[in-house]
Amino acid sequence: MAEASPLYQTYMRAPLRFERGEGVWLTTETGERYLDFAAGIAVNSLGHAHPHLVEALKGQAEKLWHLSNLYDVPGQETLAKRLTEVTFADKVFFTNSGAEALECAIKTARRYQFTKGHPEKFHIITFEGAFHGRTLATIAAGGQEKYLEGFGPKTPGFDQVPFGDLDAVKAAITDATAGILIEPVQGEGGIRPATNEFMRALRTLCDEHDLLLILDEVQSGVGRTGKLFAHEWSGITPDIMAIAKGIGGGFPLGACLATDTAAYGMKAGTHGTTYGGNPLAMAVGNAVLDIILADGFLEHVRDVALVFRQGLAALKDRYPDVIEDIRGEGLMLGIKTRIPNTELVMAMRQEHLLAVSAGDNVIRLLPPLTTTAQEAREGLARIDRAAETLQIKSAKLAAQA
Question: What is the pTM assigned to this prediction?
Answer without folding.
Answer: 0.96
